[in-house]
Amino acid sequence: MKYYHKHLFSGVSAALHSLLIPLFTFVFLILYKPFAIVEFLQIGSVDYSFNLTILLCIAIGSVGLMRLLFWALRPVLGLNYVVYALWCVGEVVVMALFSALYLVLMFGGSRGYFELVGSCCGVLSAVAIYPYALMALGFMLYDERNANLSGDSGSALVKFYDEYKKLKLVIASDAILFIRSEENYVQIHYLSDSNKCRKFVLRSSMRALSEMLLRHGLVRCHRSFFLNPQHVKLVHKDVSGLVVAELSADGFEPIPISKRYQEDVMRRL
After folding, report:
1. What are the residues whose beta carbons fall under 8 Å from the beta carbon of 177, sequence distance 6 or more?
2. Which CATH architecture group holds 157-268?
């Protein structure tokens, strides 16, 4: 799959998930009251609606913190749909852990913490799966539609700025072969208009360029390398057992693909 669903991993997605996942769960539980939820949350003199409102606030805070962490870690996570799905499961678990803390206090210790964690996980998993799935599908369809309208983003111009925010290089994304980091610099290997291999050295870090490169269809294959899937000729194991990618352009050593990024690279080819 060559097109990168950038909006699914964007800040807009993070903000919407932080609000809509808890709100959907809250509205669903208010309207339908499944799983004997009213009896479960009607604790002493504190009614169901009050407890549910407190749990809504806890859920918003939990998902918000998890999405902030996801946003901060996205350059190093090796983003793919498996990682994203596991992160969503983690958000449900975190919501359950914090919700159970509140409920333990409300029950005055008469219910065990881990018993309540299990109950919260069950309810949240059964309800929250719908907004998670619908939002993921919505973002993916939105990106696919934009890709079709624009003829994909393969020929978009990529602007490279140095660490002082000065523009140093503008190049079509489909001309980029690979990018390699080396101490405080990155090497941008690309094809010129005459189809000759060129190299441009930019004072910047791979971390600073990561989001932009992903947005333009490149894929991280190693801690020190980003690779353009359009120029991969062959992926195989070398004599030492290391998985490498051979480029269609001549004159380059095979690009290493570390185990952490192999699934994402193979999916994008």
Report:
1. 189, 190, 191, 197, 228, 231, 247, 249, 252
2. Beta Barrel (2.40)
